[in-house]
Amino acid sequence: MAIPESGVLVFDGECGFCTRALGWIRLLDGEARLTTVPLQGAGVPERIGTTAARCRETVHLEVDGTLHTGADAVNLALAVALRRSFPQRLYAHTAALQERVYDWVSRNRGRLPGTTPWCTRHPASCAG
User: Fold this and answer.
1) What would the DSSP string read from start to end of 35-104?
2) pLDDT at residue 128 is higher than 80
3) Distance between the two ends of the chain, CA-based, in angstroms?
4) Which backbone phi and psi does 58 adopt, to 5 degrees?
5) Nearest residue to 41 via CA among 76, 8, 73, 1
């Protein structure tokens, strides 16, 4: 599997759990191959070809003009960050299970441990 060189990861900047998960991905992305932006930024959803409502439902990763969402987006973001294909290979074999888990996490993210949301810490980046 080819590993993309870069991508744009759009996350919910008002979600503490999402901000914490983003921190882990950014830590793994030592070469800053991923551009990470909160959906609340000016025109962010439109730039990747979707809506703010859709971005509130699930994480989005735009790679080479193609949108990936949910567990697929997370695995591909990890592959880009790590420069390794194993997240994509794992997803190929466990997609149904991973998507069910992702959907549960997404529905319950307000109850899961997080940190200070991105938009609280960086309000200028969320002034959309």
Assistant:
1) EEEETTSTTHHHHTTS-HHHHHHS-EEEETTEEEEHHHHHHHHHHHHHT-SHHHHHHHHHHHHHHHHHHH
2) no
3) 36
4) -160, 155
5) 8
Is residue 69 scored above 80 in pLDDT? yes
Q: Which pair of structure tokens corresponds to residue 91?
A: 């997803």
Mean pLDDT of 2-18: 95
Q: How many CB atoms lie within 10 A of CB 77?
A: 28
Q: How many CB atoms lie within 10 A of CB 109?
A: 16
CA–CA separation, 30 and 33 (whole Å): 8
